[in-house]
């Protein structure tokens, strides 16, 4: 009885806290509606501010007293902001589908659940939907820590007017999913080519000789595994839940730190958040020291380059463009000085976007 009385007291306290949380959530939502009214009265039609959301998430993580981990706290606040923003105006977000893909997971990680989703079958279609205004934003993969750059996404930036508004880093854990009861029953494996490559060693060690076929997405792989006898899929947990598959082996990726980076694309520039990244598209003539001339201004002004990729320019044989990510925002004085100098030594210097750097890689 003594224990029951103590539990009842704690539960009454929890109920009181829940009531206060609900009151505060309603108050926050009302403030969001007031923000919408002020913006509409001023004729402003952009309701989503990536830099503002990034600042809020950093603040709550820094102020978190525990015992909840930072990842849990930021996830909760992300959903609160998503629901409040939907009261102002729901966002429509295109992503590389179908539902059940890691791209959908990245979309929900960045925007929360309170959005209207538009799954697309190709990266090009994601760009097209955003460019046409059918979607407010798009989410596309740009690189994987194991397999490198997603070249289709890089190539789209050669011709698009869209800008990069944000980035998402997603820890990618591959699962072997099937209707069969154990590994011995697996006769065929489906997955996206990138996922097959990320699990190459595990497959060779545990299912040698089993046929592997690359398909358009991990969600498509899960669909086939659900409908074909003896078939299995390599996909994420969300695809397994969607198609009611059993996990035969978890986290089978060869590299335990396997992470995919996604870009958020839109039609509006993003203001500084205090911890930003700028992406550039550069082209220079085919001459000795050309690449060094691109990197020298960064060294001179103390700007850290976090990534560089080259791609064929499509303007002539053996002509290349460079995709470069640097720390800082395009409005920062050192970055502006670098851009001024780069424009003097390049045939093309295009700012693809300046945006908040990704927060942690919690799911």
UniProtKB/TrEMBL annotation:
Principal location class: cytoplasm
Record-linked PROSITE patterns:
ACT, CHORISMATE_MUT_2, PREPHENATE_DEHYDR_1, PREPHENATE_DEHYDR_2, PREPHENATE_DEHYDR_3
Reactions this protein catalyses: prephenate + H(+) = 3-phenylpyruvate + CO2 + H2O; chorismate = prephenate
Domain named Prephenate dehydratase is located at 92-267
Keywords, A to Z, come to: Amino-acid biosynthesis, Aromatic amino acid biosynthesis, Cytoplasm, Isomerase, Lyase, Multifunctional enzyme, Phenylalanine biosynthesis
Give a Pfam family name.
PDT
**GO BP terms:** chorismate metabolic process; L-phenylalanine biosynthetic process
Listed EC numbers: 4.2.1.51, 5.4.99.5
Coiled coil (residue ranges): none
Domain of life where this protein originates: Bacteria
Site note Essential for prephenate dehydratase activity applies to 260
Q: Outline the extent of the Chorismate mutase domain.
A: 1-92
Subcellular location(s) of the protein: Cytoplasm
ACT domain: from which residue to which, for each copy? 279-356
User: What residue range is the signal peptide?
Assistant: none
Pathway the protein takes part in: Metabolic intermediate biosynthesis; prephenate biosynthesis; prephenate from chorismate: step 1/1; Amino-acid biosynthesis; L-phenylalanine biosynthesis; phenylpyruvate from prephenate: step 1/1
Gene Ontology MF terms: chorismate mutase activity; prephenate dehydratase activity
Q: Name one GO cellular component term.
A: cytoplasm
The record's annotation in NCBIfam families points to: CM_P2 (TIGR01807), PRK11898.1 (NF008865)
Q: What does this protein do?
A: Catalyzes the Claisen rearrangement of chorismate to prephenate and the decarboxylation/dehydration of prephenate to phenylpyruvate.
Q: What is this protein called?
A: Bifunctional chorismate mutase/prephenate dehydratase
In its UniProt entry, the species of origin is given as Immundisolibacter cernigliae
């Amino acid at each position: 009885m003594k224990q029951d009385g103590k539990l009842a007291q704690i539960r009454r306290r929890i109920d009181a806290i829940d009531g206060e949380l609900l009151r505060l959530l309603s108050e926050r939502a009302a403030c969001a509606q007031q923000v919408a009214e002020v913006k509409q009265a001023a004729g402003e039609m952009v309701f989503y501010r990536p830099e503002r959301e990034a600042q809020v998430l950093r603040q709550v993580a820094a102020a978190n007293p525990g015992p909840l981990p930072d990842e849990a706290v930021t996830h909760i606040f992300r959903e609160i902001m998503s629901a409040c923003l939907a009261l102002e105006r729901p966002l429509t977000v295109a992503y590389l589908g179908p539902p059940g893909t890691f791209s959908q997971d990245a979309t929900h990680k960045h925007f929360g659940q309170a959005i209207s989703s538009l799954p697309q079958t190709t990266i090009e279609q994601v760009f097209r939907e955003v460019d046409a205004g059918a979607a407010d934003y798009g989410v596309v993969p740009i690189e994987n820590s194991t397999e490198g750059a997603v070249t289709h996404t890089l190539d789209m930036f050669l011709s698009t007017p869209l800008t990069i508004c944000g980035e998402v880093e997603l820890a990618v854990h591959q699962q072997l999913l099937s209707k069969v009861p154990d590994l011995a029953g697996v006769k065929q494996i489906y997955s996206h080519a990138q996922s097959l490559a990320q699990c190459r060693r595990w497959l060779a060690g545990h299912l040698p000789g089993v046929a592997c076929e690359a398909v358009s997405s991990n969600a498509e792989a899960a669909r086939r595994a659900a409908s074909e006898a003896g078939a299995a899929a390599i996909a994420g947990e969300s695809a397994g839940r969607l198609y009611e598959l059993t996990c035969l082996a978890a986290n089978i990726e060869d590299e335990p730190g396997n992470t995919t980076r996604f870009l958020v694309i839109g039609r509006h520039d993003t203001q500084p958040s205090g911890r930003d990244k700028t992406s550039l598209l550069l082209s220079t003539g085919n001459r000795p020291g050309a690449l060094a001339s691109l990197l020298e201004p960064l060294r001179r002004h103390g700007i850290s380059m976090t990534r560089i990729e080259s791609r064929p320019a499509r303007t002539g044989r053996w002509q290349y463009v460079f995709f470069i990510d640097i720390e800082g925002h395009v409005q920062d004085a050192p970055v502006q000085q670098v851009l001024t100098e780069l424009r003097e030594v390049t045939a093309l210097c295009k700012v693809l976007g300046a945006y908040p750097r990704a927060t942690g890689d919690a799911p």
